[in-house]
Design brief:
Length: about 425
């Protein structure tokens, strides 16, 4: 972050103007440094939803919303999706560089040998109703990790931070798969160390003790790439939740559990589940105009799920990659005529020809096609956001560690614009 010589001059009520430094990033918007504002003027800034606010400095991910560009540690998402595996990307997000062959082998071996859960954690699933939403189970199970792992909690110690990162990245697939198995009453499948990260996850999701499960390599590659597309995304709502929770020095498992809770919302990571339900409700291309009209009607709470984004005001590069993954998977499964995929393509075409969406720069986001491809792979709708959380955990942990190591960071404690009842006394009894 470079403090430029440029200043923002603020004059309030004709008083003596104050100068505020302008910070110039490597990429993206220049920022007015307002940290001294309250001290100099007694005034706060107001920015509900943080539309115009940079909450931190970061070196991990950059999004150019106008150009539809997403960079992880400087690498374009398109190149990472084409050339790297998810664990390469996990290593990159945490350590800042792609692993060399030796680093990759060491990292993969560590992840493979930490995929099992403590048997007492496994018993916790029994406390949930079978029909619990799997995201509720994930919030509970990931938070419960902090009840089992106490030793690695001196986060000034890099070894402890690495133990926490490796442990949670390794165990998330097991936790997610067990949540699914529990919901359908099938026995848990324990991890297989002979399989890759994505293949092992599919084994734990779809395998049974009755026969050996060999995951389809095309689907494994598709899932591994889906993990990469979801790995990190700047200071979105759930990542900001993880950072805010971590700023109090809460342990990383509790912070990730908080992030999972935030991601669950249909305006955020829950949109893929909501999008598939929306497509199933629309049902047929003939009904698309009715739903486009509803999406534009301010009196109708309906929104086109999987459309729009706070940052992307052009296409979401992940949506384009996801559309291709979707086509590849449907072709492999001989489902090219999948009605939902055809409906989604037609809905996108019609929406992007409509002035309402064009003027507001509303395009498909990462959640628009991800539900279709996951459904085709046999993943139930209720599990879509769990897959999102599984992948995003590497980004959350990288962002948590960056916040811990930031010498400027303080406990996050925003102020407010109080619009309640003026001061008053309790009436005499
Ligand atoms: C994710 O932040 C991230 O990076 C998130 C994420 C990540 O990787 O972490 O990318 C993952 O959460 C993707 C977004 C998934 N959510 C959805 O698909 C839900 C549907 N989308 C909308 O709810 C909305 O677009 C948001 C929440 C995504 C963005 O909302 P903003 O930035 O607050 O935009 P807005 O609500 O102010 O909308 C601007 C205008 C409004 O109309 P006007 O008031 O200007 O007339 O666009 C309209 C909105 O009504 N609008 C939509 C719409 N999205 C915005 N109208 C119809 N359908 C939509 N989907």
């Amino acid at each position: 972050m470079m403090t430029s010589t440029r200043k923002a001059i603020l004059t309030i009520d004709g008083q003596e103007p104050i100068e505020l430094p302008i910070l110039e990033p490597v990429h993206g918007h220049d920022c007015i440094d307002i940290r001294a504002l309250a001290g100099k003027t007694g005034l706060f800034t107001y920015d509900s939803g943080f539309v115009s606010t940079a909450s931190c400095s970061s070196k991990i991910t950059y999004i150019d919303g106008e150009r539809g560009e997403l960079l992880y540690r400087g690498y374009p998402i398109e190149q990472l999706a084409a050339k790297c595996e998810f664990l390469d990307v996990a290593y990159l997000l945490k350590h800042g560089e792609l692993p060399d062959a030796g680093q990759k082998k060491t990292f993969v071996d560590i992840i493979k040998t930490h995929t099992m859960l403590h048997e007492q954690i496994v018993r916790l699933y029994q406390g949930f109703r079978r029909d619990s939403h799997p995201m509720a189970v994930m919030v509970g199970m990931v938070g419960a990790l902090s009840a089992f792992y106490h030793e690695a909690w001196d986060f000034s110690d890099e070894t402890h931070r690495n133990i926490s990162f490796n442990r949670i990245v390794a165990k998330l697939p097991t936790i997610v798969a067990m949540a699914y198995k529990y919901s359908i009453g099938e026995p848990f499948m324990y991890p297989r160390n002979d399989l890759s990260y994505a293949a092992n996850f599919m084994h734990m999701m779809f395998g049974t003790p009755c026969e050996r499960y060999e995951p389809n390599p095309v689907l494994v590659h598709a899932l591994d790439t889906i993990f990469t597309l979801h790995a990190d995304h700047e200071q979105n709502a759930s990542t900001s939740t993880v950072r805010l929770a971590g700023s109090s020095r809460a342990n990383p498992y509790a912070c990730i559990s908080a992030g999972i809770g935030c991601l669950w919302g249909p305006a955020h990571g829950g949109a893929n589940e909501a999008c598939l339900k929306m497509l199933e409700e629309i049902g047929d291309v003939s009904r698309v105009p009715e739903y486009i009209r509803r999406a534009k009607d301010k009196n109708d709470p309906f929104r086109l799920m999987g459309f729009g984004h706070r940052v992307y005001k052009n296409f979401d590069p992940r949506a384009r990659l996801m559309q291709k993954i979707c086509a590849d998977v449907l072709r492999e499964l001989e489902l090219e005529d999948d009605p939902l995929f055809k409906l989604a393509l037609e809905l996108e075409r019609i929406a992007l020809e409509d002035d309402y969406f064009v003027k507001r720069k509303l395009y498909p986001n990462v959640d628009y096609y991800s539900g279709i491809v996951q459904k085709a792979m046999g993943i139930p709708t209720s599990m879509f956001t769990c897959i999102f959380a599984l992948a995003r955990t590497v980004g959350w942990m990288a962002q948590w560690e960056e916040m811990i190591l930031d010498s400027e960071h303080k406990i996050g404690r925003p102020r407010q614009l109080y619009i309640g009842v003026p001061r008053r006394d309790v009436p005499p009894s």
